[in-house]
Structure formats: C-alpha cells, structure tokens
Amino acid sequence: MPLLISLFYALAAFFAVAFSFVELRLLWRFMKNRAAIRDIGTLKKEGPESHDRVPPLVTIQIPLYNERTTAAQIVRSVAAQDYPKGRFNIQVLDDSTDETSEIVAEILEEVRRDGIAIEQICRDNREGYKAGALSEGLKRSDAEFIAVFDADFVPEPDFLRRLIIEEQAFSDPTVAFVQARWAWNQPVEGLLYSALALPLDRHFYVQKPTRAFLGHVTTFNGSGGIWRRKAVDEAGGWSAATLTEDLDLSYRCALRGWRGHYIRDISVSNDLPSHMSALKLQQRRWAKGSAQCFRGLAKGVLASKAVLKDRWDEVFLLAGYAIHPILLINVLLWPWAVLYMDRVLFFALQALMGLVTTVVPLSFVVTIIERDGSWGGISSLREIVAGLAVGVGLMVNNSVGQAEGFLVTGGEFARTPKGVVESGRHSITAVGADKAYSNPLHWTFFAELALTSYCIVGAALLFTKGESLWSLPLILFGICIALVVRLQMAPRLA
After folding, report:
1. Is residue 367 part of a domain?
2. With the C-alpha atoms ordered 458, 460, 462, 468, is the resulting torsion angle positive or negative?
C-alpha cells in the first residue's frame, strides 16, 4: 500500500509541476517581452486605406437559446453597427423554447425599418446545439466574413468598421479570425465577482497576447470576434463533437496553416455568471469540451512539426483543465502520503510543489498590474485570494467535466445564467429571472460536501498522529471547497 500511495502521489505531483512549469515559462516570456507583446494587440493599419473600396459583406450571427433577458439588447446593439448598410446582415439563430422568439420577432420589424437586413432562423430541434445553429446560419450566407456574438455580449457601434475597414485586421490572407478582448457589463465589485473576472482577465491580458507573440495557436473564444468564411469552410466547419466548438475550430484551422489574430485594444462587454451553480455549469462544460478537443486533436498536434511552432505547448493548452483532477488526486492522497511515504521522497516532492503554489498567484499579480496599471494593495490581494479559493474549490466539478469529456463525444450545450439585463418592455426583475433560469443543484454539490468532510477528518487524523504542520494544507483545501459549497446555497454571487 505505501508503494502504491507513493507512486500515485509522485505522478500527480509530477504532472502538477509540469503544468506549472508551462505557465511559469509563459509568464517569464511575457515579462521579458512585455513591450513587444503589448504591441501585438495594438491596432495598426496594415496598408493604405482605400475609401473607394467596397467594404466586404459581413454576416453577424447571434445564437440564442432562451435568452429573454438579453435578446433585445444584443439584437439592437449589432443592428446599431455603423458599418455601411447593405454590406452587413444579421442572423438571429433562435433555438429558444420560451418567449425569447416572440421578443426577437417584434424587434425584427423595428430593425428592418432602419434598413438593416435581418432574419430569425428557428430550427425544429437543437441538433448540434450552438455549433449546429452556427452551421445552419452559414448555409444561408454568402458573406466573406462572419461575426459571432453570444446573447450577453454588447459590441460597440464601431466594432465592424474599426476591425475590417479602418484597421484592416484581415489584410493578411492567412488570418482566419480576429478575436477581441472580453470586458464586463456589470461593475466588477465584491470579492467573488472579482474572483470570477480575474482568471479571464489573465487569459486576455497575459496569456493570449503572449501566445500570439510567440507564434503559438491563438484561439477563438466563442464570441466577440470575426471569422473569415473561407477558413471555416476549409477547416471543415463547426463541429458538435465537442462542447468547446471554438477551441476545436481554432486548432483545426491552425493545423491547416491558418492563424488567429488577437486585438486587445478593442473590447466587447459581456456578463459574468450570476451565481455559483451557473459558474459550475459553465466550467464543467469548458472542462468537458477541452477534454473532447484533446481526444480529437492531440495526435494531430503532435504530428504537426512542420505547421505548429511548439507542439508540446499546444498539447498542454488542450489539456489545461487536467490540472483539476491532478489537484483532486493530490488532496485525496495527502494524508496517506504524509503518513506512509518515504520522508526523503515526500520532502523532495514538496520542494517541487513549491512551483505549483507560487506560479498562479504570481500570474494573478502580473495580470492586475497589467490590467489596472498598478498594484491595488489590499484590494488586489483580496481579489487574488478569492480567485485562488474559487479555482481550487472547483476541483471536483471540473474533474467531473474532464472525465465526461474523455468518455463521451458531444453532449448538451447547456446555457449559463448570466447577469440580468432589462430588455425594453420585456424587462424581468432579478428575482423573476433567477427563478426562471435557475439551475438545480448538481450532484457534484454532494461530492464537494463529502470532500470537505474528508479534508476535515484527514486533517484531524494528521493532527492526532503528530503531523499538525502537514494538516494545514488539507485544512486550506477544505476551506476552498467549503466556500464553493456555501456559495451554491446563495441566490447570487454579488
């Protein structure tokens, strides 16, 4: 038994260190090339602008499923684009089963009176979910470019004009898509909303521009960007084999020589998940989808020596959510590793694990400074602590998503309840919206409750065995998991 414990714990520690090393390497490269990396996401004209050139035709796709609180907002915001009329059209890809379809139908007439071409595409079923809806829309479009916005996104009126006409973001014929930075509709106030925003801010302020600078695969984030139709078609179109169709298509394009372009200077605001159950649903879907992408793409990525610059880095990106089951194994084995492992081996592994415990907080510090321009003192520290606690506390939820992704192809694309937005006369109160779009407790809630108890019992066992110092990590893990458990019983995160 001690041998098995040592083996599994050592393997978990090894993979945790490997993931941390990849993150630290990326962070080091960001710090080393900070000025140049910032320039990657800066808008700049690629060539002389011609006012005589006819702007390319753009189709704006809005996939909707029961989005009655935000449907009016997103349709009106994309209709307000100051791109030349007649050179863009709107597809509302409406798979809704509630009154969302009625709301959209009313707004369509309003938009058409302004001379905007818009259609509402309603399918008889949700086959392929979001990927299926996007594919259905493509069949009805002959546009050169396709912009995609989810229901809770609000693009600025100059979004299309700046990217396509003024800045000529697609002047390079190898650019498959342009992705804008995500920002937030609601003020990011309070510890928990800040904790949710911080990991995403790290992605858009540090990780994404650094990967672009290094020539690694730049990924589409599902919304807030524009695709070149030719690239989508050549890569085989949207696939419902994974719940992260954006990640999947990004890599399939990259394997065919296309590249993504990230623009940090332009942001598109959207909503954060409205409560912890919504966050878990979103994270579980992302974890499941990333595992499905790993299954389908890892072999091709490793064989792409002549196409991708750093194949191993790309594999680690696809396997990013695997850190959660690795962390879960670490927690489950911790008390037994303390009691039964060879002390020399145990201490050696803990020395290595120091990298794991420092790299994420360090990356959060860099993110805050890059995002805000300076360190915010106690408020920034609280933001980091909350972000770490929520991230660690999701280990059960995201491990389940990973397991499902390795076992199952596709799956239901469940909507994530987001912040509540009033939509004209169809406005819905926060209470009403939460009731209509609430998520029942997932069975992982009870697994998290059990793991919290396990941490308490394990810490008590170590304390009684004279290992009080080594009981502290287990106590901290238990607190993080208990926080996620507690927040699932609260109505909202704010």
Report:
1. yes
2. positive
- Cα–Cα distances (Å) from 325 to 291, 321, 358, in that order, read 12, 8, 19
Number of domains in the chain: 1
Residue carrying structure tokens 């992408």: 293
Backbone angles phi, psi at 279, to 5 degrees: -60, -45
Is 246 noted as a catalytic residue in this protein?
A: yes
Q: Is 216 exposed, middle or buried (0-12, 13-18, 19+ CB in 10 A)?
A: buried
Q: For residue 339, count other CB atoms closer than 10 A to its CB.
A: 16
Q: Specify if 22 maps to a domain.
A: yes
Catalytic residue among 95, 152, 201, 271: 95
Which 8-state DSSP code applies to residue 175?
Answer: E
Is 39 catalytic? The answer is: no
Q: Which residues of the chain have a pLDDT value below 70?
A: 44-52, 419-439, 491-494
Which of 94, 150, 201, 246 is catalytic? The answer is 246
Looking at the domain assignment, is residue 477 inside a domain?
Answer: yes
Q: How confident is the model at residue 431, as a pLDDT?
A: 38
- Write b or e for each residue in 357-391: b if 16 or more Cβ atoms lie within 10 A of its Cβ, otherwise e: eebbeebbebbbebbeeeeeeeebeebbebbbbbb
pTM for the full model?
Answer: 0.93
Three-state DSSP at 52 gives: coil
Q: Is residue 359 part of a domain?
A: yes
Order of strands, edge to edge, in the sheet holding 88-94? Answer: 117-122, 88-94, 58-64, 145-148, 225-228, 175-184, 259-270
Whole domain around residue 454: which residue ranges? Answer: 1-45+167-408+440-494
Convert the pLDDT of each residue in 100-110 to its tens digit.
Answer: 999 999 999 99
- The pair of structure tokens assigned to 491 is 């109505």
pLDDT tens-digit map of 301-327 = 999 987 888 899 999 999 999 999 999
